[in-house]
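Sequence, please.
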């Protein structure tokens, strides 16, 4: 949805003919250009230029029609409340979703902006971004019925993780044919196997947070657009809109936004300012933030989804994420107390 990303070709998922047949349902004028946007793992997206302007076309692939309808209703109401949330445009007959033999589609206004990493943000912008997430949570709480039965995610099971490690090690190719990913995977899997034994007594308990509610579900840099002044102009991709512990989204967002992607771990100053900004807008119990830090660290310790995609699904599309994710687990374990202070007690 950014004017600065995308590929010139249309996509393996559809061409101009597909978009022409879809866009006729919306009063957006005659189509004059199509550009497939390569970013995004779960859906297909295009920039469509017409005689009246530029639009964003989304094909939903991984959520059902009921969830799409819920998402579209909520985002329309958030946009009406003044938050920077794109709202789906209505078709000529008033619907916001078109279902064809090719799939389910929606159209949004094109928003001019660009993605920024959290490390590009100033100290003040980090706080403003946390405050924005706080306002989003508050607005969701005002717009929707109270979330019922919110609990922490089930914690990772060390025994199951050990079994998965052995399975993944068994899927490695012969050492003589290893590439950089294979070499890293072999080292990380053996290292993590030892860490799981050493840290087994630090497993968090089950339970419920004090503050549960509705959350965006995937708040990170690729789902945010900024203008030239560094102000967020759009919070994108509401496909993971759900209910859950509010602190879990805050802590997860901080780790995704402010990670260095290497052995340096997290920029704790920026992450702490982000959480402080949130707390000023929509305060959460410190106990919830502490619990979220604990549980997310434990989850990452037991998480091998990138090697799973590579070795069990034959999907290499997320290989580039593995080095940073693996390094963060080690760094976080070594600096656990500092992370806790920055994200929960600062």
């Amino acid at each position: 949805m950014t004017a600065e990303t995308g590929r010139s070709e249309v996509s393996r998922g559809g061409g101009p003919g597909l978009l022409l047949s879809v866009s006729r349902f919306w009063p957006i004028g005659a189509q004059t250009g199509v550009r497939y946007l390569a970013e995004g793992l779960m859906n297909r997206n295009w920039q469509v230029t017409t005689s009246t302007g530029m639009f964003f076309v989304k094909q939903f692939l991984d959520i059902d029609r009921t969830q799409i309808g819920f998402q579209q209703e909520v985002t329309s109401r958030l946009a009406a409340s003044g938050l920077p949330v794109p709202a789906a445009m209505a078709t000529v007959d008033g619907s916001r979703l078109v279902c064809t033999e090719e799939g389910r589609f929606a159209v949004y206004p094109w928003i001019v902006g660009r993605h920024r990493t959290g490390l590009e943000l100033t100290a003040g912008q980090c706080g403003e971004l946390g405050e924005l997430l706080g306002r989003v949570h508050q607005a969701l709480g005002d717009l929707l019925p109270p979330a019922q039965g919110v609990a922490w995610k089930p914690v990772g099971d060390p025994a199951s993780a050990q079994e998965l490690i052995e399975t993944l090690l068994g899927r490695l190719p012969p050492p003589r044919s290893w590439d950089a990913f294979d070499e890293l995977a072999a080292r990380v899997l053996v290292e993590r196997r030892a860490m799981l034994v050493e840290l087994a007594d630090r497993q968090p308990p089950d339970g419920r947070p004090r503050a549960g509610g509705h959350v965006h579900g995937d708040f990170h840099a690729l789902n945010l657009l900024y203008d030239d002044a560094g102000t967020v102009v759009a919070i994108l991709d509401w496909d993971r809109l759900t209910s859950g512990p509010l602190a879990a989204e805050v802590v997860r967002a901080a780790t995704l936004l402010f990670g260095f992607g290497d052995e340096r771990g997290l920029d704790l100053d920026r992450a702490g300012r982000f959480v402080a900004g949130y707390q000023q807008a929509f305060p959460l119990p410190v106990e919830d933030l502490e619990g979220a830090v604990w549980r997310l660290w434990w989850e990452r310790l037991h998480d091998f989804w990138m090697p799973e995609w590579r070795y069990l699904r034959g999907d290499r599309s997320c290989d580039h994420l593995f080095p940073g994710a693996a390094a963060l687990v080690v760094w976080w374990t070594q600096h656990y107390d500092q992370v806790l202070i920055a994200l929960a007690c600062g």
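The domain at 118-154+201-345 is CATH 3.90.1200 (Aminoglycoside 3'-phosphotransferase; Chain: A, domain 2).
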